[in-house]
């Protein structure tokens, strides 16, 4: 067992290696008083992650499947997920050795994921580059959305696209030399699900947000 992430509030992420050599990810949340209120109504974070995973898999968005859980063990609520080997999209963006064309290809796939989530009737309220794992395979790069807690139903396709693009672009802007090619690649791919008139309206909102 290898601890990958931990916070002072008790939340932790572990990498598990099983006897047969397979690996998985274990997420653990502290069992607090708030959890006692949210667990019975299915609103604890572990339950929301499992529900978000089911929703995304139903619309063919690549996300790790649930292996087991959610379950209460001791003073924690745990959820075990499929292990994805790779680096986060944020780390890839900051890697000076990665060719811009490779980054652009990953950006196009990310835009496609945003489009698929929105047309599927959902929105991810906390879509971040640090929550996307880029797996390198024989067929190229494969992005995986690893944190699905923020997946919510959304009947406005344009509203969902805007919210997710705004969140992602906030991180891309921190890398000035890559803003142009990556931002446009993400936007164009995400806009495939929108009519032309709606695209202009979303673009205006994004420009307005960036100028603040």
What does this structure look like?
- The chain has 212 residues and is of the alpha+beta class.
- It folds into two domains: 2-82, 2-Layer Sandwich (Phosphorylase Kinase, domain 1), CATH 3.30.200; 87-210, Transferase(Phosphotransferase), domain 1 (Orthogonal Bundle).
- The protein has seven helices and ten strands.
- A five-stranded antiparallel sheet has the order 1-2-3-5-4. Strands 6-8-9 form a three-stranded antiparallel sheet. It has a two-stranded antiparallel ribbon with strand order 7-10.
- Strand 8 and strand 9 (140-145) form a beta hairpin.
- Helix 4 runs antiparallel to helix 5 (157-172).
- The longest helix is centred in the middle third of the chain and has 20 residues, at 100-119.
- The protein is globular.
List the helices and strands and how they pair.
Elements: E1 2-6, E2 12-17, E3 23-30, H1 33-38, H2 45-58, E4 66-73, E5 76-82, E6 87-88, H3 89-94, H4 100-119, E7 122-124, E8 132-137, E9 140-145, E10 151-153, H5 157-172, H6 179-190, H7 196-210
Antiparallel strand pairs: 1-2, 2-3, 3-5, 4-5, 6-8, 7-10, 8-9
């Amino acid at each position: 067992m290898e601890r990958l992430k931990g916070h002072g509030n008790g939340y932790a992420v572990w990498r598990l290696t099983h006897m047969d050599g397979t690996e998985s990810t274990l997420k653990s949340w502290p069992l607090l008083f708030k959890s006692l209120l949210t667990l019975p109504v299915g609103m604890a974070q572990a339950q929301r992650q499992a529900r978000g995973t089911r929703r995304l898999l139903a619309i063919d968005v690549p996300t790790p499947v649930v292996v087991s859980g959610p379950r209460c063990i001791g003073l924690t609520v745990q959820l075990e997920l499929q292990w994805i080997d790779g680096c986060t999209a944020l780390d890839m963006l900051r890697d000076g050795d990665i060719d811009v064309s490779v980054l652009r290809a990953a950006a196009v796939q990310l835009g496609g994921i945003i489009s698929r989530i929105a047309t599927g009737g959902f929105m991810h309220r906390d879509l971040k580059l640090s929550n996307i794992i880029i797996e390198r395979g024989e067929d190229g790069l494969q992005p995986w959305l690893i944190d699905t807690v923020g997946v919510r139903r959304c009947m406005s396709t344009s509203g969902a696209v805007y919210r997710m693009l705004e969140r992602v672009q906030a991180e891309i802007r921190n890398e000035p030399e890559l803003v142009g090619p990556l931002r446009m690649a993400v936007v164009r791919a995400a806009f495939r699900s929108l009519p032309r008139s709606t695209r202009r309206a979303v673009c205006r909102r994004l420009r307005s947000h960036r100028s603040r």
